Task: structure prediction
Amino acid sequence: MIITSDELRPGLVAHLDSDMLIKSGRLMAPPGALLPMKTRPFLILWRVVSDGEALVHIVPLYSNQTTCRIGLENEHKIGGPQWVSSTSCYHPASHYLAPAEVICAASRSERTQPGWRAGYAVYRPGVLMSIEFNEENEFMPVSPDAEAIPAPDGLFEVWRQRMHSRGSIGQAA
Result:
């Protein structure tokens, strides 16, 4: 069932159609980032409103551990038994930024129902903040035909301040 904008919170794990994300022309990534393939689970790291638009930072998740990928700890997972017991990892070079409406549209293959969504470290902001990412990277459009929409200055600092002030990431930004 499609995920709504209100559900896009840090820690949510959503099945997103990678082709839809890329074809939207609004997916952004650091230069040299690996492009996601197929419909797969993505972890939402944060959501922030900038210039009236909700932007969402997502990381694709993989089920095969490699020397380049970093594993997620199952003890921080919530959701169905298959998700909670499965191997999940991410690649530190695969981070993306997209508007909330694009994320919601790409969630058409989501397997869970509202109230029963999968999650990772939903109540542990420090765990999510430990996911490796080079904050010096600029997000650039993945599609060569898209307009450049650089990440707003101070975006990561705003996110960190919000997470620290809340002590929880269970609320939408």
